[in-house]
UniProtKB/TrEMBL annotation:
The keyword Metal-binding does not apply. InterPro entries: Bact_Sigma-Reg, GAF, GAF-like_dom_sf, PPM-type-like_dom_sf, PPM-type_phosphatase-like_dom. It holds the Pfam family GAF. The keyword Hydrolase applies. Residues 214-439 form the PPM-type phosphatase domain. It comes from Actinomycetospora lemnae. SUPFAM superfamilies: GAF domain-like, PP2C-like. Keywords: Hydrolase. Gene3D superfamilies: 3.30.450.40, PPM-type phosphatase domain. This is SpoIIE family protein phosphatase. Residues 30-176 form the GAF domain.
């Protein structure tokens, strides 16, 4: 990792293999939903005003993913290399971490300091499968900053996920070009695609949980895919009554919602595997905290080479013999659930850990949260597609959701999920799951 006082030697940004990979990725100075997802996560997780997915061309840098970037660059989504810190990440192939650019010999004369207000910078390389550095995932602050190791680890994890997304796009582009050369098979390929769409719809319906009957618990859930034609995606919901009872005779139900990185059929297939593995872990660890369920899944995820990445909330609902409820939960990078008390108070269930499945994601200890819930409480879990989307503010939409749920405190779960899905128009680029549980 480049130290603050390092001065690097510049190489050649015009490497033909690197430029060919950039062109094949199909990303430029336009917002891309997948790249926007990573930029927004960096901005929120590292608490910085600006975060970028920056792809460096021979004579400019472009931002298919940008969060918090001001005008005019927020509109054009490009700058010349005179305003680029990210070019140095590409040239060295290494992370670049700067606490105060105004004193750094490598970038103190860079026009980004003057024109964009860049002071503190942390950028991680984005590579393709051949090792070409295409750009960087970077966090930017407008004041001097001492970057904490945990922040840099989180940025590196997100950059690894972003690089994987780029590699998948390049692989798909190669496959598309190969299919284009097979004109003689066009008719049969079209038939094959139509059959696969039918199978995908049927598979998605099979993968989504049929909600069980649980005494003392009313449950409703809805799923809406990003692609309404294919009806496939990577979001899930699950409700699992655990066999037997708690140590004092109470009953236990494990619930989860989650979101696999990616879209369409690949994400749906991975989602089915992840949900099944979480179910098995929940069954085996019914008496333990939710963190033990997620940790067991993560070990299996890495051990069998599935390497699924995404976010989830796993909650353990416990009904005591006297009818009182309590819940414990763990949040792996997912939007927080909400609880609405019978009196109408709606609160976010805070507590936020790293996503699952990213490199170095198995290190560290996950934190469980606990809360007693009065009978009649409403618990609502959802995926990020409900509150996040291009041109929307996630915090504002979350507050709108919180206020709306407070008004729906007495409604049955079916009415709650239908109302929420109807009144919070979702982003067309992401799947949406909403699940509501009424504790009787």
């Amino acid at each position: 990792m480049c130290a603050v006082d390092d001065v690097v030697t510049c190489g050649d940004l015009a490497d033909p293999g690197r430029l060919a990979a950039l062109a094949e990725a199909g990303l430029g100075p336009r917002a891309d939903p997948g790249m926007e997802w990573y930029a927004e996560r960096v901005r929120r997780w590292l608490d910085v005003p600006v975060a970028l997915v920056s792809l460096v061309r021979a004579d400019e840098q472009v931002f298919p993913g940008a969060a918090g970037l001001g005008e005019p660059y927020g509109g054009t989504r490009r700058t010349p290399l005179s305003h680029s810190f990210c070019q140095h990440v590409v040239l060295t192939g290494s992370p670049l971490v700067i606490g105060d650019a105004r004193d750094h010999p490598l970038v103190r004369d860079n026009l980004a300091v003057r024109d964009l207000g860049v002071v503190a910078y942390a950028g991680m390389p984005l590579t393709d499968a051949a090792g070409h550095v295409l750009g960087s995932l970077c966090a930017i602050d407008v004041t001097p900053r001492r970057w904490r190791p945990t922040e840099l680890d989180a940025l590196a994890d997100l950059a690894a996920g972003c690089a994987t997304e780029l590699r998948l796009r390049l692989a798909r582009r190669d496959a598309d070009e190969e299919r284009a050369r097979r004109d003689v098979l066009e008719a049969s390929l079209r038939d094959s695609v139509e059959r696969s769409v039918t199978v995908a719809r049927e598979m998605q319906q099979a993968l989504l949980t049929t909600l069980p009957e649980v005494p003392g618990l009313e449950v409703a859930a809805r799923y809406a895919p990003a692609d309404a034609e294919q009806y496939v995606g990577g979001d899930w919901f699950d409700v699992l009554p655990v066999a037997g009872s708690d140590e004092d005779g109470g009953s236990v139900v494990v619930v989860s919602v989650g979101d696999i990185v990616g879209h369409e059929l690949d994400a749906a297939i991975t989602m089915g595997q992840v949900r099944s593995m979480l179910r098995q872990a929940a069954w085996d660890r019914a008496a333990g905290p939710p963190s033990s369920i997620v940790e067991a899944f993560e070990r299996a995820n890495a051990g069998i080479g599935l390497d699924a990445a995404g976010t989830t909330v796993v909650a353990r609902l416990r009904r005591r013999p006297d009818g009182r409820w309590s819940t414990s939960w763990v949040n792996a990078g997912h939007p927080p659930p909400l609880v609405v008390t019978p009196g109408g108070r709606a609160e976010l269930l805070e507590g936020h850990d790293r996503m699952f499945g990213l490199p170095r994601g198995l290190g560290g200890v996950r934190r469980d949260q606990e809360l007693d819930l009065p009978a009649g409480s409403l618990l609502v879990l959802h995926s990020d597609g409900l509150v996040e989307g291009r041109g929307t503010d996630a915090d504002e939409r979350t507050e709108t959701l919180r206020s709306r749920l407070a008004a729906l405190r007495a409604a049955d779960p079916d009415t709650v999920v239908d109302t929420v899905m109807a009144e919070l128009p979702r982003s067309s680029s992401d799947d949406v799951v909403v699940m509501a549980l009424r504790l009787g």
